[in-house]
Design a protein that fits this description.
With about 240 residues, the chain is mainly alpha-helical. It has helices at about 10-20, 35-55, 65-70, 80-85, 90-100, 100-105, 125-130, 130-140, 170-180, 190-200, 210, 230-235; strands at about 140-145, 145-150, 150-155, 205-210. The protein has a domain at about 90-235: Cytochrome c-like domain (Cytochrome Bc1 Complex, Chain D, domain 2, Orthogonal Bundle), CATH 1.10.760. β2 and β3 (about 150-155) form a beta hairpin. It starts with 8 loop residues before the first helix and ends in a 6-residue tail after the last helix. The structure holds heme C (HEC).
């Protein structure tokens, strides 16, 4: 018999043996959970989820959205307030507010603009005035000297055209939003109105203020008054009873 490799090794063997002895065997009647049970539980969860989803509004957060509740009534799908939640003016304002992020970098979140650089949209006659000029400005861009609320602007490069980058619906929402924010009050601009200007005017250069003079007071036909009551009656189908 050779000497142990290490003086402690016999001691280690003894300890290991003790540990092994402690380990209990699986009782003969107990089995690990079968794999099919796991899959069955997953299947139940999927079916339950797909049933619950539609019943709770498709997991959307509309139920806690202040615009949806503004119309009053029952905000649940199919409830009395469901028609109000679909009010086109409220929808346009909500979507326009998020679409406005592309404008806000220059015209600022409060619509106040930046003196000497970006003209204000709040209180601007270009925003609340004729809808044709407003749509043309955003559709094709604007450059050269312009006076807004008594302040002169002539920012190099002017404002780019947004017609290529935004759908008529997105533009309509943003324009409805700017016409009805920060104290502005104006009619709604619909996607049909934006589309009409798009189809009629195919220019590839920016407008100048002088070039827009003929459109200053013109309105594209098809506008609808802003406001939940008016638009709900004008554009929304009557709520199903
Ligand atoms: C890159 C900066 C920039 C962005 C982004 C921008 N604008 Fe402008 N905007 C300007 C400038 C500069 C002018 C003035 C152009 C000129 O001097 O002729 C202007 C002018 C206007 C005007 C006419 C003047 C006024 O203040 O009423 C309107 C309306 C307008 N912009 C709306 C918008 C809307 C809506 C958006 C978003 C879709 C937008 N702008 C995005 C820079 C910008």
């Amino acid at each position: 018999m050779s000497a142990p490799a290490h003086p402690d090794s016999t001691d280690l063997d003894r300890l290991h043996a003790a540990v092994k002895r402690e380990k209990e065997d699986l009782a003969p009647e107990s089995q690990p959970a079968p794999l099919w049970a796991t899959f069955l539980l997953m299947l139940i969860a999927i079916i339950a989820g797909s049933q619950l989803g539609p019943m709770t509004g498709g997991w959307s957060f509309d139920v806690s959205n202040p615009f949806a509740l503004a119309g009053g009534g029952d905000p649940r799908p199919g409830g009395a307030g469901a028609g109000a939640a679909m009010d086109p003016f409220q929808m346009a304002m909500k979507k326009g507010a998020s679409g406005y992020s592309v404008c806000g970098g220059c015209h600022q979140g409060n619509g106040g603009g930046l003196p000497g650089q970006f003209p204000p949209l709040a209180g601007s006659e270009y925003v609340t005035g004729g809808t044709e000029r407003l749509i043309r400005i955003v559709q094709h861009g604007l450059t050269g000297p312009i006076t807004v609320k008594g302040q002169g602007f002539n920012t190099p490069g002017g404002m780019q055209a947004f017609g290529g980058a935004m759908s008529s619906q997105d533009l309509a929402n943003v324009l409805t939003f700017v016409r009805n924010s920060w104290g502005n009050e104006g009619t709604m601009i619909t996607k049909e109105m934006v589309q009409k200007v798009r189809d009629e005017e195919k220019r590839t250069t920016q407008w100048t203020d002088a070039g827009l003079k003929p459109f200053a007071d013109k309105n594209v036909p098809g506008e609808i008054p802003a406001g939940p009551g008016a638009t709900a009656a004008a554009a929304a189908p009557p709520a199903a009873k």
